[in-house]
Amino acid sequence: MTWAPHATVATIVEHNGRYLMVYEEADGQRVYNQPAGHLDPHETLQQAAVRETLEETGWTVKLTGVVGINLYTAPGNGVTYLRTTFIADPVSHNPDIPLDSGILEAVWLSYEEILARRDQLRSPMTLQIIEEYRAGRRFPLRVVGE
After folding, report:
1. From residue 35, how far is each of 1, 3, 4, 24, 118 by CA, in Å?
2. Which helix (H) or strand (E) holds 61?
3. What is the pLDDT of residues 14-48, one digit of tens each?
């Protein structure tokens, strides 16, 4: 049997000191997370990040960099995720786009509001990657290819 982690992407979108987050139902709980999701067949990591952000928030974004590539094993199901987190600027919002199943709403939260919801974050990686971003961790898009 071959083991492989699930390839996922996420996007940090900051505007005026607020972060674009999704409030969603996951594993029977309501939680906050960055816009994120799985890589589809024949899709680049960059394409997946832009698509997932649009599908989960209604926001079109322009990718500007990468914060990091992280492994996370979910304690609830034992699945390991290999997540590439991008940095993006908001470009335009289309409130008429239906959000993905399970997404309750897209919200803009300050860092302090995210900290206040620490117990409601989907995983520890949600806050960890924001803190890495706030500390200045940035890599060019080319580190993950086109």
Report:
1. 32, 26, 23, 10, 17
2. strand 59-73
3. 999 999 999 999 888 999 999 999 999 999 999 99
Tokens of 1: 């049997």
| Calpha distance 93→91 (Å, rounded) | 7
Q: Helical H runs in the chain?
A: 45-57, 111-116, 124-134
Please say whether the beta carbons of 27 and 9 come within 8 A: no
Q: Which residue has the tokens 């997946």?
A: 48
Pair 40, 7: CB distance under 8 Å: no
Cβ–Cβ < 8 Å for 9, 39: yes
| Six-digit token string for 105 | 């709403």
Q: What is the largest CA-CA distance in the chain?
A: 48
Torsion of CA 66, 67, 69, 71, to 10 degrees: -150
Question: Contact at 8 Å (CB) between 45 and 9?
Answer: yes
pTM: 0.93
Is residue 122 a contact partner of residue 33, using CB atoms and an 8 Å limit? yes
